[in-house]
Amino acid sequence: MSAPLEVTGLGRSFGHTWALRHCSLRIEPGSITALVGPNGAGKSTLLQLAVGLLTPTEGTATIFGQPPATSAAALAQVGYLAQDHPLYRGLTVGDLLRMGRGMNPTWDHDFALGHLAELGIPLSRKAGGLSGGQQAQVALTLTLAKRPALLILDEPVASLDPLARRDFMATVLADAADRGTTVVLSSHVISELERVSDHLVVLGSGQVQVDGAIDDLLDRHRILVGPGYASPPTGLRHVLSEHTTERQTTLIVELDGPVQDPRWTTHPLSLEDLVLAYLRDPDAGTRTFATQATGSLS
Amino acid sequence: MTWTSWRLTRPAAIGAAALVALLATYLVAAGHTLRAALDSTGLLSCLSAGGSRQTCSDQAAAFYRTLNSLTGGQPVAAYLVLLPGLLGVFVGTPILVREIESGTLRLAWTQSVTRTRWLTSRLVIAGLVVVVAQLAITLLMTYWRGPVNMLDGRFEPTGYNIQGIVPLGYALAAFALGAFVGVTVRRSAPAFAITLAGYFLIRLVIENMLRGRFMTPLTVSWVGHAPTVLPSGAHGDWLMEQDIPKPGSGYPTVIIYQPADRFWTFQALELGITVAIAATLITLTYVWVRRRSH
Amino acid sequence: MITFRLDPASGVPTYLQLVHQVKHALRVGQLQVGDQLPLVREVVASLAINPNTVLKAYRQLESAGLTVGRPGVGTFVRVDVPDQTVMATPALRRRLSAWVDAARKEGLDDQDLSALFASALHDSVAEGVA
Q1: In chain A, whose CA is at the least distance from the CA of C42?
Q2: Of A113, B60, B81, C4, which sits with the fewest C-beta atoms within 10 Å of its C-beta?
Q3: What would the CATH number be for the domain defined by A5-205?
Q4: Which one, of C14, C22, B238, lies nearest residue A218 by Cα?
Q5: Pairing of strands C67-70, C74-77
Q6: Can you name the CATH fold of C8-77?
Q7: Per-residue pLDDT at C81
Q8: Would you call B19 helix, strand, or coil by DSSP?
Q9: Which residue in A has a C-alpha nearest to residue B289's C-alpha?
């Protein structure tokens, strides 16, 4: 089966600036992938290339083996939600549902009505008169009622308050639980992603820096604390950062196996620290982590 | 998709309908008064008895007084000439530029409808609004202008521009230009400004540089006694140039004109040119939408 | 039926928190044989967590023999965990209560108590390894 999303050597330039370059990724079916990176790292560009809103300058993107947005059938498989949750502000919620129904052969009207009723969003209200959280939910409802096999969310909760964030993500995740939807969501806030996603892609300055299963990533990376000015122990695959004083050396490393050297103690690393370490690591190329070890923490 | 396109075009359609209603209240009433004035001033009977504008000048003067009292001295016909273009610009320009600005293009283009189909649906529905509104406007303008045609004909520029099939052509050209400029300029205010400027440029070029050359004009010239039948507005001719020398100078009097029976040929040619411009711009809009990213 | 909760600051992976909560509920008798665990969708919607995380926790409970999954129905408790711990050893519990009282008299607060307990646990594990 073709991957829900696969990009190969993907690049996009605006004028003389590359927003994204040499990007290769494969999203596994049923996974929930967090795409993280600082602002301007190319996250939006990558997602818009994936749904065909942008055309690549180089390389290819395919969705279930097909180029995106070239046919109605290809479009029907993907749900996309832009960061600002765009809606026709002058239309009522009911009008918007009718639009979704008219433009999507796979539309699930009962789901849309049921979900909005659950949230208490009246169909007669104009979209422009809804709160930010409600607008996000209406836009998400339009996206989900299409019944997409792949859901692409660009910074979906960035503009929402904590309660609206929670409700929004609960809707997305319940859909993933119900239908096995593959989800790719971007964010520059890493802290909330750990409980939501199972795969992580880190983009930094237009390039993929980390790509792997989160459990696997956390399992392979450690903070090592050892004596001052000590050289790193053997058996490391990669040293991401090194901070040393007279008394103590602190390393963030990717392990190749257990650290045997008794002078070093190992500590687990939070996802946020791991991401930051990669974004700061000047030598970081693309590091892809196989997903075979899912569950290796157990 | 059709319903969605209609729903998104509805505000423009309501605006166009309001414009038509507003015009109707003025033009129908004014047209009615002018028709009555044709009778009451005796102009109609004078003209139908074979009189000309010169021989019926008293009646004509009375009729023009009525016309002026209705218009308040304003060149209403010159304002009406602007309408087809404004209608096209204000319906055509927002179709893409508003969606680009508000980000809703990303909503529209990620539904299960290809961009080409989406664009076709939007353009056809909005285009129909322009066609229907413009046909209604043309009918109203023709009714209003009818009595004036008796004196000035419909071939001289003001009459020609607001009657027949030419206004529809200009409305469509403005509509297509608006759509194309909207998708290329991507911001509302400059898009409207550029579309309006572009539209007037197209219009001025056709009207002032091309229209007179659609067919070679005819010429009458004489020295001394004038021929009995002269080309005139009242006969529906378009007098392009009149060279009247000082009496006794010995130079001939020259009238260069387009005869009345060429009216529909000219209208058809001009409609053809404007529709071709519209078709080219619509094609470019498709190319842009398909090739370019949003 | 039990309700899951998460402690984001604990540093314990989410799926393990779920596993621990089920085990705890079994120990204290809150869950008994035949009881159903919340549906994956319910847990996902109420906690806003990844469905794969819940599935992973449930798989682990199942492979530990504590629960059994019935496809299309849900996950059910399969065994009674022998009441050997807290509830079954009143003597231990009494001594711990006495220790807590004594510590409070020394002026220790709850955090000090936790730290002291964790440290004692750690030492005993370290001795066991050595």
Answers
A1: A174
A2: A113
A3: 3.40.50.300
A4: C14
A5: antiparallel
A6: Arc Repressor Mutant, subunit A (1.10.10)
A7: 63
A8: helix
A9: A53
Task: Indicate yes or no: CB of A51 within 8 angstroms of CB of B114.
Answer: no
How do residues B101-142 score in pLDDT, each as one tens digit? 999 999 999 999 999 999 999 999 999 999 999 999 999 999
CA distance C88 to chain A (A): 29
Residue B222 β-bridge partners: B253
Q: Give backbone dihedrals phi and psi of A155, rounded to 5 degrees, phi first.
A: 45, 55
Region at B118 (left for phi over 0; alpha for psi -120 to 50; beta for the rest) = alpha
Cα–Cα dist B1/C41, whole Å? 34
Ranges of each domain in chain A? 5-205, 216-288
Summarize pLDDT for B260-293 with one digit per residue, the tens. 999 999 999 999 999 999 999 999 999 999 886 5
Helix, strand, or coil here: B255? strand
CA distances (Å), origin A250, targets A264, A267, B214: 9, 10, 87
Contacts of C53 in chain A (CB under 8 A): 195, 198
Please give the single-letter amino acid code of residue B219: T
The partner residues of C67 in beta bridges, in order of sequence, read: C77
- Cα separation values, B175 from B22, B43, B96, Å: 21, 41, 12
**ipTM, interface predicted TM-score of the complex:** 0.87
Calpha distance B16→B19 (Å, rounded):
5
Query: In this predicted model, what pLDDT tens digit does every residue of A108-123 receive, in sequence order?
Result: 999 999 999 999 999 9
Ramachandran category for residue C87: left, alpha or beta (phi over 0 → left; psi -120 to 50 → alpha): alpha
Q: Is A87 on the interface with B (CB under 8 A)?
A: yes
CA angle, residues A41, A45, A48, in degrees to nearest 5: 150
* Residue B205: half-sphere exposure toward Cβ, Cα within 13 Å: 10
CB neighbours of B186 closer than 8 A, spacing ≥ 6? B97, B100, B101
Composition of chain A by helix, strand, coil, percent to 5: 30, 30, 40
The answer to whether position B250 is within a domain reads no
Give the rounded percent of residues in chain A with a pLDDT score beyond 70. Answer: 94
Which residues on neighbouring strands pair with residue A6, listed in sequence order? Answer: A26, A62
Return the amino acid letter for A177: A
**Total structural domains in chain B?**
1
**Residues of CATH 1.10.10.10 domain(s) within chain C?**
8-77
- Is B199 a domain residue? yes
Cβ atoms within 10 Å of A242's Cβ, excluding its own: 13
Task: Write down the pLDDT at residue A197.
Answer: 92
Strand partners, A152: A80, A184
Q: Among all residues of chain B, which has the CA nearest to that of A104? A: B112
CB contact under 8 A, A174 and C8: no
Whether pLDDT at B35 is above 50: yes
Pairing of strands A182-187, A150-153: parallel
List the domain range (segments joined by +) for residue B8. Answer: 2-212+262-291
Inter-residue contact C48 to A169 (CB < 8 Å): yes
Q: State whether residue A66 sits within 8 Å of chain B by CB.
A: no
Q: Max CA-CA distance within chain A?
A: 69
| pLDDT number for residue B118 | 95
**Cα–Cα dist B142/A100, whole Å:** 43
